[in-house]
UniProtKB/TrEMBL annotation:
This is Nuclear transport factor 2 family protein. The lineage of its organism: Bacteria, Bacillati, Bacillota, Bacilli, Lactobacillales. Residues 16-109 form the SnoaL-like domain. Pfam families: SnoaL_2. InterPro entries: NTF2-like_dom_sf, SnoaL-like.
Length: 131
């Protein structure tokens, strides 16, 4: 098994934090530094985008209909193949408030750009029937 490169992990963690922050600040001026041209992006509720151009169009649309209020990173794990896993909490305002927790699988290319990002959603309220 290949050892984890600590320097790459730290750079990628910073890139992930920068991307999440873009949604809060609504400033995507450095998006091209973060997302690869051929990036595949799959949202947690179904839509998928197959290129930087499609991702950029989606973001442009989202900025007209949604305001992200919270996108808090709770935990980040790293794998040896350039993939990082991010556990997060998300809140956004559209015509109603949307709140959920999730996990993203984020793969980086050799240039340290995101080239595959897949989101998974879970319910924020949990029950503990056997606790």
């Amino acid at each position: 098994m290949k050892p984890i490169d600590i320097a790459s992990t730290q750079r990628r963690t910073t890139i992930i934090q920068r991307y999440f922050s873009m949604w809060l600040t609504r400033d995507f001026s450095k998006l091209k530094q973060v997302i690869a041209t051929d990036c595949y992006y799959q949202e947690c509720y179904g839509p998928a985008y197959c290129s930087f151009a499609e991702i950029q169009a989606w973001i442009h649309h989202q900025l007209t209909v949604q305001r992200v209020i919270v996108w808090q990173i709770q935990r980040i794990w790293t794998a040896t193949d350039g993939t990082m896993f991010v556990q997060w909490h998300f809140e956004a305002q559209t015509q109603r408030l949307t709140v959920f927790d999730g996990l993203s699988s984020i793969h980086f290319n050799a240039a340290n750009q995101i080239d595959d990002l897949r989101e998974y959603q879970t319910t924020t309220q949990h029950t503990y029937p056997y606790h």
